[in-house]
Design a protein that fits this description.
56% of the residues lie in helices and 14% in strands. It is of the alpha+beta class. The protein is globular. The chain has a three-stranded antiparallel β-sheet. Helix 2 packs parallel to helix 4 (95-108).
């Protein structure tokens, strides 16, 4: 790996070690999203399978209009008829951010 990538990764690990609250906050957001979606999540990445490319693209566009970046993942990245939304949480997301996302997802479903 290039040296800047290695240095950045080491610093990111150091930040996480110095600030355990970051991990707790992210775990709290994962639990909130998991509960809101009604699905068990083991990571900060969640997929909502919508089926058609058109449906996934429309949902992604509607979420973007609401100020939420939730990309549509489509074939050939995923099998045909399994296009989906990909949600990626980070420790920088707040409880309100996740609540807004859940409300927006509810509004488009």
């Amino acid at each position: 790996l290039p040296l800047p990538v290695v240095v950045a990764a080491r610093e990111a690990l150091a930040v996480v070690r110095r600030t355990p609250q970051i991990r707790r906050d992210l775990q709290d957001r994962i639990a909130q999203l998991s509960e809101g979606l009604g699905m068990a999540l083991a990571s900060p990445i969640a997929s909502i399978v919508l089926g058609t490319e058109e449906r996934a693209l429309q949902a992604s566009a509607a979420l973007l209009e609401a100020g939420l970046l939730v990309p549509a993942i489509r074939p050939p990245t995923v099998p045909p008829e399994s296009a989906r939304l990909r949600i990626a949480l980070s420790a920088a997301h707040s409880e309100d951010d996740v609540a807004d996302l859940l409300a927006a997802l509810d509004a488009i479903s």
